[in-house]
Write a structure and sequence with these properties.
It contains four helices and nine strands. It has a domain of 120 residues: Super Roll (Bactericidal permeability-increasing protein, domain 1). 20% of the residues are buried. The strands form two sheets. A six-stranded antiparallel β-sheet has the order 2-3-4-5-6-7. Strands 1-9-8 form a three-stranded antiparallel β-sheet. It is elongated. By secondary structure, the chain is an alpha+beta fold. This is DUF1439 domain-containing protein.
Length: 189
């Protein structure tokens, strides 16, 4: 067999493989599932978050992720240290936060989005500092996670197809589910 025939055969095989993948996506779709443990590992690998906010210095660390069947949001509990250096005071406690999820197709990456502080608890901390600490935590999480994905798809052929064909991302049955499929061109004008 000549080199040209081998090259033609390889190109034909690649074309058939791609067509098969597209047919499968069109007919059946695909799902990617990420457990709370997988998200936990991705977030735990991040360094602590530090934020200066007015008189406060805030540190958030050790996120513990949970996914609820009753919600489409990702929940996390983080340890917090709130310090007021001018007073020489600090308090330790927990922040409970929730976040949505966004997908950036060009990067093939999932990011936490629109964090909301549900509760902040630091025994002995005055209410005025608790309010500021909640605002600081919200700002810090928004900025920190906007730049750091929680999952990036692998750059394989399947990953590249996924990047182009992602339809929906939500939390279901305790797992983060990404639904994939071909766009329905019959309903487009």
């Amino acid at each position: 067999m000549t080199f040209k025939r081998l090259l033609l055969l390889a190109a034909l095989l690649a074309l058939l493989t791609g067509a098969g993948l597209l047919w499968q996506l069109r007919q059946q779709g695909m799902e990617l599932r990420f457990t709370a443990e997988q998200l936990q590992q991705a977030l735990a690998a991040r360094p602590p978050i530090h934020k200066a906010y007015g008189p406060l210095e805030l540190t958030l660390q050790d996120p513990r992720v949970s996914l609820s069947e009753r919600s489409t949001r990702i929940r996390a509990r983080l340890r917090v240290n709130v310090a007021v250096p001018s007073l020489g005071r600090s308090w330790q406690g927990d922040v409970e936060a929730s976040s949505g999820l966004r997908y950036e197709a060009a990067e093939g990456a999932f990011y936490l989005n629109a964090p909301a502080i549900e509760r902040i608890s630091a025994p002995g901390m005055p209410e005025r500092y608790a309010t500021l600490a909640g605002q600081a935590a919200s700002s810090a999480l928004q900025r920190f996670y906007a730049l750091r994905p929680v999952h990036v798809l692998e750059p394989t052929a399947k990953g590249l197809a996924t990047r182009m064909l992602l339809r929906e991302v939500h939390v279901h049955n305790g797992a983060l589910v990404a639904k994939l499929g071909m766009p329905d061109i019959s309903n487009q004008e």
